[in-house]
């Protein structure tokens, strides 16, 4: 094997990755457990998330337009586009822990945000807690589970979409080194196998990579593509030409049950580390089967999900969840929560 030939492109990717990782304001996404409570139906939050995307665009457009005074020289397209992305980064890409969307969904306490129904799980009750996995997903923090465009996924996918997608989009447009979309996919995998994934959590998520690439597409369509979202009026000011729709970018591959993760308990591939990975995979299979069984019971009693992700019985939309978790937000489900329908109780733990 020609190690020099193999090492050179890898070194280049690592250098680019290190620059992106050190970028001010770059967010860190979480891990999630979509298996344990897969039987609990969730309302589709696509409309609320699309509205927040629209609000973010309108906010930045208004700020950029205030910089353009009638008595000043009309800025060019590139200058306005640069001003938009610079302001966007300053206003929204600034969390050092988790992205704005992930944080606001997890807390349901951000101003001017709609309440989003989600499952906020304690780490110790997750598949990672049961497996005694790495510290962050097993004992520290997990992203909420949400239903977006009929796809059940962790809210961390919105951090990858909105925040990481922004940084990858900037890298794609760099004139210092020509990158292609496939380079972004490979670069995303470098991150997943380093401090954004495996090195910290022991989890490399292919679903995260799909969200990164969708985010790149989203930012590219703000000013470009066949139908850009932002243009200019006769006075040269930025205007929104169309509202964003998150469903244009969400696919079933955001669901880690469909696009499985890769688990590495330690950086060194030892027999014990492989055994730990198999133990986690077994627990995931058991939780999946248990949730599927509970979902069948719910279906037999007239509770099911339609294509929009709503729960219905006899054509009537039901209130989804009866909440009992002390101090929890209105749309938060925990293990202390249960669903009561037709006189039957199905606890979250089974």
Question: Could you write a compact summary of the structure shown?
Answer:
With 350 residues, the protein is mostly helical.
Q: What this model shows, in words?
A:
The structure is a single chain. The chain has one domain. The chain has helices spanning 3-21, 46-67, 77-92, 100-107, 127-130, 135-140, 156-172, 181-192, 198-201, 206-223, 271-300; strands at 118-119, 145-148, 151-154, 203-204, 230-232, 238-240, 262-263, 304-305, 311-313, 316-317, 332-333, 338-341, 344-347. Helix 2 (46-67) crosses helix 3 (77-92). The model is unreliable at 1-27 and 306-350 (pLDDT under 50). It is globular and about 65 Å long. It contains 11 helices and 13 strands. The strands form 6 sheets. It has a 3-stranded antiparallel β-sheet. A two-stranded parallel sheet has the order 1-11. A two-stranded antiparallel sheet has the order 2-3. 38% of the residues are buried. It starts with a helix and ends with a strand. It has 350 residues and is mainly α. A hairpin with a 5-residue loop joins strand 8 (304-305) and strand 9 (311-313).
Name the beta content range. 5-15%
Q: What is the average per-residue confidence, as pLDDT, rounded to a whole number?
A: 79
Question: What is the count of structural domains?
Answer: 1
Instruction: Provide the structure class.
Output: mainly alpha
- Distance from N terminus to C terminus (CA atoms, Å) equals 53 Å
- Poorly predicted regions are 1-27, 306-350
Order of secondary-structure elements: HHHHEHHEEHHHEHEEEHEEEEEE
Rg over C-alpha atoms, rounded to the nearest angstrom: 22 Å
Sheet with most strands: strand arrangement: 8-9-10
Oligomer: single chain
Largest sheet: 3 strands, antiparallel
Please count the beta strands (DSSP E, at least 2 residues each): 13
The helix content is: 40-55%
Distinct helical segment count: 11
C-alpha geometry:
globular
């Amino acid at each position: 094997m020609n190690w020099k030939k193999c090492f050179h492109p890898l070194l280049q990717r690592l250098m680019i990755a290190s620059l992106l990782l050190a970028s001010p304001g770059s967010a860190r996404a979480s891990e999630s457990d979509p298996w344990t409570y897969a039987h609990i139906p969730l309302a589709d939050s696509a409309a609320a998330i699309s509205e927040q995307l629209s609000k973010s665009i309108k906010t930045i457009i208004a700020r950029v337009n205030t910089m353009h005074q009638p008595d000043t020289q009309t800025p060019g397209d590139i200058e306005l586009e640069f001003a938009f992305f610079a302001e966007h980064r300053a206003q929204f890409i600034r969390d050092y822990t988790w992205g704005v969307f992930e944080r606001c969904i997890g807390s349901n306490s951000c101003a001017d945000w709609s309440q989003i129904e989600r499952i906020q799980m304690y780490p110790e009750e997750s598949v990672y807690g049961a497996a005694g996995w790495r510290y962050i997903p097993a004992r520290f923090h997990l992203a909420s589970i949400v239903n977006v465009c009929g796809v059940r996924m962790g809210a961390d996918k919105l951090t990858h979409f909105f925040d990481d997608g922004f940084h990858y989009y900037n890298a794609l447009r760099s004139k210092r080194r020509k990158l292609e979309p496939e380079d972004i996919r490979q670069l995303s995998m470098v991150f997943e196998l380093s401090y954004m994934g495996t090195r910290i959590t022991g989890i490399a998520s292919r679903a995260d990579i799909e969200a990164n690439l969708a985010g790149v597409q989203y930012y590219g369509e703000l000013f470009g593509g066949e139908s850009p979202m932002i243009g200019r009026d006769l006075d040269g000011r930025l205007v929104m030409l169309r509202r964003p729709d998150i469903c244009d970018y969400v696919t079933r591959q955001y669901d880690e049950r469909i696009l499985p993760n890769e688990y590495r308990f330690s950086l060194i591939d030892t027999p014990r580390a492989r055994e730990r990975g198999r133990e986690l995979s077994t627990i995931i299979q058991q939780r999946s089967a248990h949730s599927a069984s509970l979902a069948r019971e719910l279906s037999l009693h007239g509770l099911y999900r339609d294509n929009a992700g709503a729960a219905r019985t006899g054509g009537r939309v039901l209130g989804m969840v009866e909440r009992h978790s002390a101090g929890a937000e209105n749309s938060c489900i925990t293990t202390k929560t249960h669903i009561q329908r037709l006189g039957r109780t199905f606890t979250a733990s089974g």
